[in-house]
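Key result, reporting period 2: structure in, sequence out.
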């Protein structure tokens, strides 16, 4: 015996709502990831900029390499964390 048409419409509506929510969660997570990547990049560039303007060579070298490390590692670890969250959610 086939299911009534109203019941099929309700099931389809719930499925569409769940899919829409999943897409929204994915977009929100990717937007947050992009923001954190830009924040890490800006912090790294800020440290490198401080290294350019300082007069002490040791502080300059430390802030230059700290900026390089913070910028690169912050972006890499943020993207890896986003990938793991996407895997757990089933996005890819």
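The corresponding designed sequence is given below.
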């Amino acid at each position: 015996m086939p299911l009534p048409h109203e019941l099929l419409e309700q099931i389809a509506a719930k499925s569409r709502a769940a899919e829409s929510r999943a897409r929204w969660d994915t977009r929100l997570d990717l937007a947050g990831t992009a923001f954190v990547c830009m924040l890490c990049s800006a912090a790294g560039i800020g440290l490198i900029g401080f290294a350019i303007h300082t007069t002490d060579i040791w502080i300059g070298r430390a802030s230059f390499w700290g900026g390089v490390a913070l910028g690169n590692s912050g972006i890499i670890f943020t993207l890896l964390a986003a990938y793991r969250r996407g895997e757990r959610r089933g996005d890819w």
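Residues 5-53 form the longest helix (49 residues). The chain has two helices and no strands. This case is discussed further under Risks and Mitigation.
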